[in-house]
Amino acid sequence: DNTSNQTKASMQPDIQSIVDRIKTGKVTRIVVLTGAGISTGAGIPDFRSPNIGLYDKLAPLRLPYPEAIFHINYFSHTPEPFYAIARARHPGNLKPTVSHAFLALLAKKNLLRFLFTQNIDGLEQDAGVPPEKVLWAHGNWKSQHCYKCNSPYPDDLMNKAILAGEVPYCLESRCGGAVKPDVVFFGQSLPAEFGEKEKEVLEADMMLVMGTSLRVAPCSRLPLLVKEGIPRVLINNEKSGDLGNRDEDVCILGNCDDGVRQLADALGWGEDLDDLWKEA
Ligand code: CNA
Asked: How far is the CA of 39 from the centre of ligand 1 (A)?
């Protein structure tokens, strides 16, 4: 009819090509890479957005360089700055965003092959993405251990320390190491499954990259592994990595919650998305 023709005509042609591929069943194995930008809408500032990102707010802590706050070598002798900001960044009881709900919707529609997340807030799982489909490439903030002897540390004491902004220390006698959330710091290795899961990217028939500046390796390299001819879709405030350089790339620039809504509406999934988001 006329209205849907009009909508089609005004829709960005590149989004339409993505919609067609999904609607005709050409795409069934979507691999997703997410970053801090999908959680800023939930209230957790990202690292690198100018003025509002964490790295622009660290001056009072007098770090040698911003990333030091998350570097294992620096933490090993100076854990105080990390605990000075921990309270403000603890995911606590945050609610997933529409972007998280969209990932759950892809899983529900059997289109999500695998999700690599660089986020440590656990909101993917809260939104309903099945945990077996997710690799938390940088760990998560749901548990903690002594950085030195690796002894576990109780959640209640950790929560107290975070609230007080004080460094929690290992309970083992004579250890004295600082306790660190099970988040991968700079200088630490990624989970062992990372290498094995990379093959999911080689087998993807679409890759979706959301809310990441692609500045942290090795996740930043995942989009490069996508086979030529396979569409890569970027939903982000700004261009990132080499997304947009290949003919079949599609960049939906702007707020990612708006981007996923636009995509969901074009797919006729608008209501499904809202229902899932309300449930989360
Ligand atoms: P980053 O380097 O801070 O980049 C974030 C990207 O998202 C930038 O390109 C922003 O322009 C973009 N962005 C921010 N908000 C939005 C929005 N609402 N809509 C669209 N785009 C947006 O963060 P990366 O994830 O790329 O860097 C990897 C680090 C960040 C990982 O080690 C994470 O652990 C770490 N991190 C995680 C969280 C979290 O768990 N929520 C928060 C902050 C940082």
From this structure: 8
